[in-house]
Amino acid sequence: QVQLVESGGGLVQAGGSLRLSCAASGSIFTFNTMGWYRQAPGKQRELVATITRGVYINYADSVKGRFTISRDDARTVSLQMNSLKPEDTAVYYCRLTMTSYEYWGQGTQVTVSS
Question: End-to-end CA distance of the chain, in Å?
Answer without folding.
Answer: 40
